[in-house]
Design brief:
The structure is a homodimer of 404-residue chains. The first copy, chain A, is built from 12 helices and 16 strands. Chain A has helices at 4-15, 32-46, 92-107, 134-139, 145-150, 159-165, 192-195, 234-251, 288-303, 326-338, 353-357, 384-403, and strands at 51-54, 60-64, 74-78, 116-120, 181-187, 200-206, 208-217, 221-222, 257-259, 263-266, 272-273, 276-285, 310-319, 322-323, 343-348, 363-368. In chain A, 58% of the residues are buried. At the A-B interface, strand 8, helix 8, strand 9, strand 10 and strand 11 of A face strand 8, helix 8, strand 9, strand 10 and strand 11 of B. The complex binds N-(aminocarbonyl)-beta-alanine (URP) (2 copies). Chains A, B: InterPro entries: Amidase_Cbmase, Bact_exopeptidase_dim_dom, Peptidase_M20, Peptidase_M20_dimer.
Chain lengths: 404, 404
């Protein structure tokens, strides 16, 4: 059994780095806060003999040897970066629970046969640099490092420059190596486990997600003298297509999702009709074929603007729906039975680094419920008992996986 | 008669400071470009004996003595700051034509009885710092310097800090002094003169304008796992009210204007349902009472969001409809007759520093047409013959005004 007080103390100490006044956290990828968070994490790792490596994407691997160093390592990873208005658990919990698992094994002087590597994946959130899960994506060979390096944040800083200025540009080339299995513990970030009164979700797969950037263009002109009839105001183009987008996604039923997270005008000036309205479109569905159809239909609608406007669609990212390894699912299930936990299978609505890892080797995920299903919000909250349950399931899944 | 080549050369040299690749200009208030533009202007002023003063808002006064220094000065002013995607004439033309007028008088060794002060008003555009016309507004006592000092640009820099860093914090306190009259030459920034094939507009007044900031609030949450039915997505609140806003303003007829120039989400993250959608609202009408009614009705609509959302309305600025001095209108009219110009009376759709000056003393404005009525756009264009006509009308209005 893991130590509750220690796990909670890891979490609350980490939450202080980038803490917001309302209890949330702003520790975005490749910032000074991100660097400080990792530094703190490393002091904890060093205390029980972890040995760190950093790769060229900023992914951080901390290795704990088992009894047989020729065996493939088990990866236990998640991320320490947060959304700009993030909480204290998304990603962080997975990393710090993995740390607590290693502390527990260390307390008990229990050595596994396999080495374990705790991984802190870089830029999982995708809020500062598009796309999400870019550290694990490059690791898995699904994203190109040279593309990600060029990705710019809203201030025009590139991933590569931020990597260097935050001291996270590791010497090791970011590339996949063989692993025995990969386990990730995460908060659900949705309302299902809470509604079903379960303390553990055994994640069977992750829904597909597509990201686009839509640019609606009109003509910039003066807000005062220009008659309404002579304007090409792209806000009116936005107004025309918004209901169509939401209605179309609703046609695809309860499992379909659409989010417009970024929305801006260019130029951005009170007394100027903008030239462009630019917005992000995040479309999701657990069934890949349905997501494909839905995306196609929604993009057609984005192109159906009145003829005085121009519409431009750019694909930013595609993360196909995936299913996790049956053996991992089974092991997690066995751990919940062993611990007598109230568990259920669940499909993840959020993307995770495990999506990319699942393309490389046996991968599994464990969820715990979060309050009101709210995440990517400073109010994000998880009950301590669930935090403890999740960490224990992680511990026993690791043991079961490596013992047989 | 003024010298065409010299006027055009002033304009094209000034356009190089902050020049954009597509021919437009980005020389926003209190930037390094703004400072460089004023420096260039001052070298031209010094060459013919102009003496400069700078006040605590960054308004720049350049005095040219007449034959009687006890007489009140005539002000001829406009602004050198531009929109982020601005052209080469808005404001700039009025300042440089006034300069050309003084050069012409200098060439002819003609001294007026009254002193003349060319004024470069600070932050006229209102795009970097809200509101517009803030230099002249504080000068006229209609805006408070301490409020404007606190105004922040989109990067969080205050007016006061920008004033200092751009070296425009003058030692003289910004406050009104008596003047004999004030004349401003400007491009129309609308389509009327062109449509009516007139080369001069005799401006009889300026329409009223109200600026608001509307904040629609929902609840930030994760774009993936959160079911659509559980969301409080403020983009949907925006979608609900946008058509109502445009429809309502259309009910007020052809002279009514509404512009949403700034539009943004907070937080701004692709995979996060935003907490807030914030937008600016610029409402205008030439009849003050109509503008008042229209604003009231539009703001009510902004408050009529579905009950899961919150709506907050903040008044940013009110600039009431004004009428210019009849004597100034008459003098400008006489100048156009003297020069045999094709002129018509016109109401300005744009705000100008003359709005605030008209509350202090006799004030008049002259317009010239601009191509397709387009302004606040890098494509802004004015035919050289119109630039010359306007400057000549300014010259002769000045002479007529001071000679009688
Ligand atoms: N866990 C998490 O918030 N990941 C970000 C990727 C996504 O948008 O789902
Ligand atoms: N001339 C001009 O563009 N002034 C800005 C003030 C306004 O918004 O009308």
């Amino acid at each position: 059994q893991i130590k509750t007080a220690r796990l909670l103390s890891f979490i609350s100490k980490m939450a202080k780095i980038g803490a917001k006044s309302n209890g949330g956290c702003n520790r975005q990828a490749l910032t000074e806060e991100d660097r400080l968070g990792r530094e703190l994490f490393l002091t904890w790792c060093h205390a029980i003999g972890g040995v760190a490596r950093l790769d060229s994407m900023g992914n951080l691997f901390v290795r704990f040897e088992g009894t047989d160093s020729t065996k493939l390592p088990v990866l236990m990873g998640s991320h320490l970066d947060t959304q700009p208005s993030g909480g204290n658990f998304d990603g962080v919990y997975g990393v710090l629970a993995a740390l607590e698992v290693m502390y527990t094994l260390h307390d008990q002087k229990k050595k596994l046969v396999h080495p374990v590597e705790i991984v802190v994946w870089s830029n999982e959130e995708g809020s500062r640099f598009t796309p999400a899960m870019s550290g694990s994506g490059v690791f898995a060979g699904k994203l190109k490092q040279s593309d990600i390096y060029k990705s710019l944040d809203d201030q025009g800083v590139s991933y590569h420059d931020a990597l260097i200025s935050s001291g996270q540009n590791g010497t090791e080339l970011c590339q996949a190596f063989p692993f025995f299995a990969s386990l990730e513990l995460h908060i659900e970030q949705g309302p299902i486990l809470e509604a079903e009164q379960k303390s553990i979700g055994i994640v069977t797969g992750v829904q597909g997600m597509n990201w686009y950037q839509i640019t609606l263009s009109g003509e910039t002109t003066h807000a005062g003298p220009t008659p309404m009839s002579m304007r090409k105001d792209p806000v009116q183009a936005l107004m025309a297509i918004l209901p169509n987008i939401y209605d179309k996604v609703a046609e695809y039923g309860e499992q379909a999702r659409v989010t417009i997270g970024k929305l801006t005008t260019i130029p951005s000036s009170t007394n100027t009709v903008p030239e462009h309205v630019i917005f992000s479109l995040d479309l999701r569905h657990p069934v890949q074929k349905t997501l494909d159809n839905m995306s196609k239909e929604v993009l057609e609608l984005c192109n159906q603007v009145p003829s005085i406007f121009n519409s431009d669609v750019e694909l930013l990212w595609e993360s196909p729906a995936i299913e996790f390894d049956l053996r991992c699912i089974d092991v997690i299930h066995m751990a919940t039975e062993l611990l007598n936990m109230n568990a259920m299978p669940i499909v993840s609505g959020a993307g995770h680094d495990s999506v990319y890892l699942s393309t490389l080797g046996p991968t599994g995920m464990i969820f715990v419920p979060c309050k009101d299903g709210i995440s990517h919000n400073e109010k994000e909250h998880v009950e301590p008992e669930h935090l403890v349950s999740g960490a224990n399931v992680l511990l026993h899944s690791l043991i079961l996986l490596t013992e047989e």
